[in-house]
Amino acid sequence: MKKLIYILSLATFSLCILAACNDDKESTEPEPVQVEGDGKLRLKFDNVVGNQDLVLNDAVYKNSVGEDFTVTKFNYFVTNIKLLRADGTQYIIPQDSSYFRVVEQDSLSRTITLNRIPKGSYTGVEYILGVDSLRSVSGIEKRGGALDPSGDMAGDGMYWAWSSGYIFLKFEGYSSQSTSANGKFYYHIGFFGGYDSKTVNNIKTIKLDFAGNKAVVGKDTIPEIGIIADVKKVFDGPVPLSIEKHPSIMFDFIFSAEVANNYKNMFRIDKINSVSK
Amino acid sequence: MSICSLWIIFMRINLNENLNLMRKICLALIFFSGMIVSGCKSDSETPDPETGIPKPVNWMKPSHFPDPVYDMSKNPLTVEGVELGRFLFYDGILSRTNDIGCGTCHQQSAAFTHHGHELSHGVDDQLGTRNAPAVQNLAWSTSFFWDGGVHDLDFVPPAPIQNKVEMGETVGNVMEKLRNTPVKGAAVPVNYPKMFKAAFGSEEINTERMMKALSQFMLSMVSATSRYDYYVLGDASAITTQEKEGLVLFKQKCGSCHGGELFTDFSFRNNGITPNKINDQGRYAITLDEGDRMKFKVPSLRNVALTAPYMHDGRFHALSEVLDHYANDQNSSKTDSMYVSPTLDPVLMVAGQKRGIRLTAQEKLSIIAFLKTLNDEQFIADKRFSDPGVGTAL
Q: How much is the pTM?
């Protein structure tokens, strides 16, 4: 019963958040009923470090506090995607088709293809970096695809088995400034707010405006929206992150929240291309 | 379950019968139920050729238990699903070294704990940090593990499978190994794709199916046929006078935490044992809440006399040591052995008296006598829960 109350309250809470998001759109129109279309749209993620492309393992970069680093892993969840229109309405991708994991090492994973999109022009995109709290506590039948808890934690697995939940962003590499025994640093940022006991909530909603450009979903055209994720922003932000001070951040609410507050600003729109079907 | 339900009916109509007769009838009933069960089992080896549809298991809650916490409608038990779960539970294929199954640390004769092992013992002789808890009555558990880090039975298996010092595997790799069975030359050639087909309709092996099968088996493991249960269900002669005294004392002295028919309130508490060498902070590691430091799950006490050693790190080897701790008179010392910290449970700190729970030597003996009535001999001998021949014990 407690569990039910908790899930219901989570659901209510999520609805409130959604309602709050809708307020931003300065629209008093009721949300139109979701009608699927037959168009497609792609989100193409390009991970970079400042003005350099991200090259795993070999390339050496410098963060804002002057520490050198390489990147061995850079993975994150992109979920609960919404396409925004100029008139303030939006198309919400059906939830069961809205969980993706972007894995730097896997080039295919960096392109997310959204199917059955209504034709028309879109002016922005919104998504969650992470996994919403409701899905983080849902049953095993709702955990297929990107959410499958069978992954290898030493590899690209993003599920914490011992304290049930997902890692929203997994970032690992080497640094000569790292104070760990093997010279590596590990940033595994998760926490959805807790199941029966409150934890920090590092779920971040990302909203990107196409800045006057439009992504037009047509009969024969598929818009490809380039989204740049700047690894450097994980270190930069309200509280700069030092590898020397924190070679590992996983289960600390304060530090993980600081990192999440940094990386929530790592995305920006690159360019929008249109390709033929 | 059938044994239990038959018993309940039986108890209700035979309150005044003499005990010997009851025991005889009981034995006959158990034997009869066993025959029914073994009948089911032989069916389960191959799905019904007529339909290929898994046969439902009528899971019944013992009448004196509360409603289960697990949502059975999401994962209805079938003969084939439970049987697949039983094989998976015992098969060492779940570990990196192929020799540590769930049943290695959760042995039936010890109510599915690791008899004699203070800490769990995994691949390559590695030691875990905590004592393996009993696998029983999990349908009623609100959370799992000593720290409650998992709250859904379907998500329990990935934790020991992925733990480097337990099974040291990945769920993904286990499924790959399962898909490649039967293995030629294996001592027991199990054909998992065929068993998945019997349980779920196709040979596909995925995380959801694997976890649901393991859950089905664990949900079927209900312990509710101890002498205490017979007593509660109406057989006044099932327990002795001393055991009855122990029950009354137990309710007074221990019932605030170990309450209800599951003998736990499922909470997390600091019971005043000294922090161990690794300073295990228990529930705090999950919630990072200062108020949760050194709190651990209040375990069910069903079969407790079979599940030694005790506490999250197996530090006590006898029930008498456990009661000595709670009574705060370890070795009959006058000094205070309760480790005082801000999270020490208030029931162990009653104003104006020595910390702990007041218990005389006689009271302790009665409580221990009562606790032994929770031993469920049928549960630990039930062939439905036994190793089908694929297990390994260390």
A: 0.85
